[in-house]
Amino acid sequence: MGEMIDAGGTEFWVERRGEGPDVLLIAGLGDVAEAWQSQLDGLADRYRLTAFDNRGAGRTRLPEGPLSVPRMADDAAALLRALAVPAAHVAGFSGGSFIAQELALRHPGLVRSLVLMSTCARPDAYFRRMTDFWHWMVERAPGERAMLEAFYLWVYTARAHADGTVDRFVEEALAFPHPQSADAFRRQLAAFEGHDTLDRLPGITAPTLVLAGELDIATPPRLGRAVAERIPGAEFEMIPGEAHQPFQEAADVFNARVDAFWREVDAAADS
């Protein structure tokens, strides 16, 4: 069960689970803490996991004024400090990985390690055309179900559309009592469209693992590889047969890989 936590004067909805080294999970566009359910359930025997609703998603209010990735990174830092977490393994996916990059650059002392899933450092022409359509889609879709069904075409594998997984996610989203407004979706999306860390990535000092789904069309593996090449010592791995959100579709594979990475980081720090 989650709770509201005051961090820097803003109330954030936070879910915490487990005991052990601290892990901060940062969700992407439109997603809430529950997006990480497979990690909250599957890794809580080894870690103390914290997931939260970003500004403008779920139970965390949308602020007045501009919304930006650096501002959301400062939110994550304020949340860690409010929870008295001196440093955490940080994992972010999609837009959450943009926030995680900025967190590592702006607040390096808070980041023990970095996992970037479905990431990029600077949106390319394809990404911009895709997100331009998403702005139109959320405004013009004939209903919330139609919008979700269209949006999930970029997110999940054809396998998940065929086997009922996407249908289940759509029903869960429709039943969620704190839906994101169209305005909040567009404002979050605009913030992620403005993300650009490409020239600053060499300043990241935390051990970093970059993961990409082989079939991801929203943030293709080449974008993740470019991120890994810019961060000193970063590892890059592609997950075969997966799309934008392997942490949900292939949770066991994702959990095993990040667990191994975090164990390696902790062992190196203790040696």
TrEMBL record:
Keyword Hydrolase: yes
Keywords, alphabetical: Hydrolase
Residue ranges crossing the lipid bilayer per the database entry: none
Keyword Hydrolase found: yes
Pfam families named among the record's database cross-references: Abhydrolase_1
Domain AB hydrolase-1: 23-247
InterPro entries documented for this protein: AB_hydrolase (IPR050471), AB_hydrolase_1 (IPR000073), AB_hydrolase_fold (IPR029058)
GO molecular function, one term: hydrolase activity
PANTHER family the UniProt entry points to: AB HYDROLASE-1 DOMAIN-CONTAINING PROTEIN, HYDROLASE, ALPHA/BETA FOLD FAMILY PROTEIN
The protein, known as: Alpha/beta fold hydrolase
